[in-house]
Amino acid sequence: MPEVSGLVEIEIKTPLPSEGVVGGKYKVEGVAKVAGAVGPPPWLYAQVQMKSWLKPDILEETHYWRGIPIPITGNFSIDWMPDKPGIYEVTVVATPAPLSLPLIGVPPITGQSDMMRVSVEKLAVQFSEIKILSYSIA
Amino acid sequence: MERIVRLATPPTMLEVAAGDKIAVHWSFIYQGPAYSETVYVAVYEGDWPPPGIDEKIKAWVGVPLPNAPDPVNIKSTEPLVTNAVTDAMVGKSFGIYIKVGNTLPKEGVGAFDNVIKVKGVPSPTFSELKIISYEKV
Questions:
Q1: How far apart are CA A9 and CA A27, in angstroms?
Q2: Confidence (pTM)
Q3: B117 in contact with A at a CB cutoff of 8 Å?
Q4: In chain A, which among 17-56 make CB contacts under 8 A with chain B?
Q5: Residue A61: predicted pLDDT
Q6: In this predicted complex, what is the ipTM?
């Protein structure tokens, strides 16, 4: 990750859960403030780095999920849906310009939140309460 | 001619005749990723559970399941309709059950012994045809 300039302060109000499931929909919410209130509002992304259960010491993939800023207030929310099991490290980052996703390379970052670690497991198929409600002559 | 439709709520006995088809409404709770699974209904002779049953008529349908991190209720919008009751079933009682994929239900909610009675007189059958003796006359 490039050096963070600290131009943008990012405070997480609603962090991600520490545990999740593949296909689950999660939301991270917070506030981003430009230091000294000077300059344009930042572009916010969830930087999602994934480690496999089999290789937990190695970061395998990095993806970016675009945030939705709320004008004036500095509030933002970012939806995230993990598509495979693993250990995820999610950090909200601010960039001075929109990123072209999927991103190749490393973006310039003007601020970042604390990192949130999320352990994601594959959801097992489960059927229960299998019922016959009624039967009749067709 | 007025037709009487009997709708049985388990475990009410349903009387049918040879040639009738049976329509079944079902539901289950699902949790898991999105994919398609088969819902299967069979009318059986014998006592639940398998392998103590002999399936006589059946029906199945592919059901698209949503991505469901949390449990969701899946319910039939159209009934599953079996093939027709056969002459060989006349005069006997049968059970009915539903399964989803390979998951079997609990007896009393998804499987019921002897709740379908096929009315009528059984077709005459002949068996053990033997010549007892033969002699010169």
A1: 19
A2: 0.61
A3: no
A4: 21-25
A5: 81
A6: 0.82
